[in-house]
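Severity: low
Component: inverse-folding endpoint
Summary: output formatting inconsistent between runs
Steps to reproduce: submit the following structure tokens with default settings.
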């Protein structure tokens, strides 16, 4: 082959190689630019397993199921029954036998028609929004709750004469996707005859149909190995929706949970019965909740909190609170118009738990967060002092203090299982959260310091005793019936509780604080429906100084006590004044206290010596025989009495000065602790800002890298 032909052949091979390289490059580019349009499959078994890990405990899963009941009830006289699922079966081939079952059912009336069962059981589907009356806005609903409790669950409803059935079972789930079958039955009493027979025919047709062998297996397991028994038990539960007083309801909903995976049904029902009153704030007294023959009353907090008091505040969502924002939200009335500050209203309740005060363990301030119209408990802290930047040293903010944050407007964002807040979903979620905690901290300080400083004159032991004095009455209120106490069954928002008047707020550093003027004019009004409150007469008697019973006490001996009372008033008025130069103030106060204490000690030590120097022996005493008793001249006796009285007066004054110095030192220590808390807060804020800046830098670098790739 000639050299020219070889060169042409080589050039042709090069061109083909370049074309192939370009084609491969284009294919890779198209693969990145145009991803596959194929919809990803959902693993039904994996999804079921994820459902079972949605809640912290089986009890929380039960409460989530009950949430749907309250949502369906809205504003009408609803009814809810919870009871064990008893296994009863009898016919010619199956004699009556009571098997040990471990399930329960929830049966409730509804204000409006129950939506189609296919919508109820659609995975991650919900038509609820974030309104105050809706708790399941994330589409969790019955599916996660049932899967957490049991591997076999039946969901039933009746809209007048239309019966619906849904089956939630683990064995029905496939790798190819979730399977939650549902069925509807239209019952015509004139043509279909007996309801029990009608339902038996419908269920039998479903179980015996070709392709429904997996449903038949579920029915067999529900019947303890007998399909007929399983059908009988299911129909018995469906018949509950049309028996006794339920036949008068137009719309009924029922959930049947079979064979609990955790614990026994009796224990779980007992836990629900005890926990429901604390778990919901705003269930009205006309709503009936029954566990077997026991009716639950939602009056947990009003019947155990002494001096129950309500504060109403407004929380900005997007703007960090400063003096201008604070003035704006305090001066505006009515609903939020969104012109300047995007905020929302909520209530904060405070009281001292007269039941908890006698229980063993820490009595620190407990913090509870409730949300939505019926007031579901979202989260709680046994010791909320750290979260609210309150002094946690010694017994400050203890005495079974209870703080309840009531988001009745439903403004705060919740996570899917309603077990915590989801501030991360909001653009300025951290600002929103900090504003909320600042307000809660501010009103807690006002409430606690009012009782500690004003009522108990700084005596924490007295405050503890006042709370304990109401323990027996609070225990009696746990046993009262509706007829003996008209307020007994009222929810917390139905009661006229105590309030403060004349409160005016300022913003200082990063805190919301009372203005100095409002400390002098604020007024505490005891609510008309509150009967657990302190006997202030008893507190006043116990805080009065005890005067010495000396026959020759002069008027000047009473002056230090009067001055001390005045000093106490001054300290009370200035108790909340902020001091921000903590180190200098503490050093100066410590030096002053040390100097005064040293002077007082020297004076106390010098007095006996001076007294001995002035006492000279009387001439008559020197001439008296040792065997005879000594006598003192009247002038000498007067002088001794006067000096003795003067010594007692100065001694009392020294004790008083010492007590005053101790109080001042304790106040300075309290201010130092607050300053340390402030510093910790500012450090945390700086860390959050640094983290946010780092996150933004990483995002900028990522975008730069991506732009370079493009």
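Observed output (run 2 of 3):
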């Amino acid at each position: 082959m000639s050299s020219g032909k070889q060169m042409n052949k080589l050039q042709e091979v090069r061109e083909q190689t370049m074309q192939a390289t370009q084609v491969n490059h284009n294919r890779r580019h198209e693969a990145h630019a145009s991803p596959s349009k194929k919809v990803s499959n959902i693993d039904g078994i994996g999804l079921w397993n994820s459902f079972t890990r949605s809640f912290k405990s089986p009890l929380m899963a039960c409460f989530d199921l009950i949430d749907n009941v309250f949502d369906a009830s809205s504003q009408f006289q609803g009814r809810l029954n919870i009871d064990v699922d008893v296994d009863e079966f009898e016919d010619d081939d199956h004699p009556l036998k009571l098997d040990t079952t471990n399930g329960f059912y929830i049966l409730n009336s509804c204000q409006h028609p129950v939506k189609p069962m296919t919508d109820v059981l659609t995975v991650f589907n919900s038509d609820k929004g974030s309104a105050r009356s809706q708790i399941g806005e994330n589409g969790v609903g019955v599916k996660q709750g049932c899967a957490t409790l049991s591997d076999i669950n039946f969901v039933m409803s009746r809209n007048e004469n239309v019966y619906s059935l849904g089956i939630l079972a683990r064995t029905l789930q496939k790798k190819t996707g979730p399977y939650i079958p549902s069925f509807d039955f239209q019952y015509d009493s004139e043509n279909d005859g007996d309801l029990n027979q009608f339902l038996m025919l419908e269920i039998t047709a479903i179980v015996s149909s070709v392709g429904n062998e997996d449903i038949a297996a579920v029915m067999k397991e529900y019947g303890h190995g007998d399909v007929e028994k399983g059908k009988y038990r299911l129909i018995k539960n469906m018949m509950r929706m049309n028996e006794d007083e339920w036949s008068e309801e137009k719309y009924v909903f029922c959930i049947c949970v079979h064979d609990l995976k955790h614990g026994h049904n009796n224990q779980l029902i007992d836990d629900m019965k005890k926990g429901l009153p604390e778990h919901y704030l705003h269930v009205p007294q006309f709503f009936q909740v029954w566990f077997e023959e026991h009716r639950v009353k939602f009056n947990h907090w009003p019947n155990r909190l002494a001096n129950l008091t309500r504060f109403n505040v407004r929380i900005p969502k997007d703007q960090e609170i400063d003096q201008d924002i604070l003035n704006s939200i305090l001066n505006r009335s009515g609903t939020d118009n969104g012109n300047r500050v995007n905020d929302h209203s909520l209530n904060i309740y405070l009281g001292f738990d007269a039941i908890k005060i006698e229980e063993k363990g820490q009595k620190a301030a407990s913090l509870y967060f409730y949300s939505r119209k019926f007031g579901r408990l979202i989260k709680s802290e046994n010791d909320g002092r750290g979260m609210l930047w309150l002094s946690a040293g010694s017994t400050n903010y203890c005495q079974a203090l209870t703080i309840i944050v009531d988001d009745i407007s439903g403004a705060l964002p919740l996570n899917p299982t309603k077990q915590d807040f989801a501030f991360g979903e909001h653009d300025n979620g951290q600002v929103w959260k900090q504003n909320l905690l600042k307000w809660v901290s501010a009103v807690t300080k006002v409430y606690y310091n009012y009782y500690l400083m004003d009522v108990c004159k700084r005596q924490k032991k007295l405050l503890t005793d006042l709370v304990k004095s109401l323990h027996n009455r609070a225990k009696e209120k746990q046993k009262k019936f509706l007829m003996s106490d008209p307020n007994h069954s009222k929810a917390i928002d139905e009661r006229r509780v105590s309030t403060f008047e004349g409160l005016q707020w300022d913003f200082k550093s990063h805190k919301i604080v009372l203005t100095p003027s409002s400390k002098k004019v604020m007024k505490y009004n005891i609510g008309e429906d509150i009967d657990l409150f302190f006997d202030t007469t008893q507190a006043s008697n116990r805080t009065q100084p005890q005067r010495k019973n000396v026959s020759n006490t002069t008027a000047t001996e009473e002056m230090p006590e009067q001055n001390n009372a005045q000093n106490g008033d001054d300290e009370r008025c200035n108790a909340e004044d902020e001091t921000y130069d903590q180190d200098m103030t503490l050093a100066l106060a410590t030096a002053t206290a040390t100097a005064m204490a040293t002077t007082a000690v020297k004076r106390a030590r010098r007095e006996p010596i001076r007294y001995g120097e002035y006492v000279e022996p009387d001439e008559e005493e020197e001439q008296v025989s040792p065997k005879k008793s000594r006598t003192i001249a009247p002038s000498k006796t007067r002088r001794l009495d006067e000096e003795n009285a003067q010594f007692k007066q100065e001694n009392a004054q020294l004790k008083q000065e010492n007590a005053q110095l101790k109080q001042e030192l304790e106040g300075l220590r309290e201010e130092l602790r607050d300053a340390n808390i402030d510093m910790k807060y500012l450090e945390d804020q700086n860390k959050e800002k640094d983290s946010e800046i780092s996150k933004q830098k990483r995002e900028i670098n990522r975008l730069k890298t991506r732009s370079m790739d493009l």
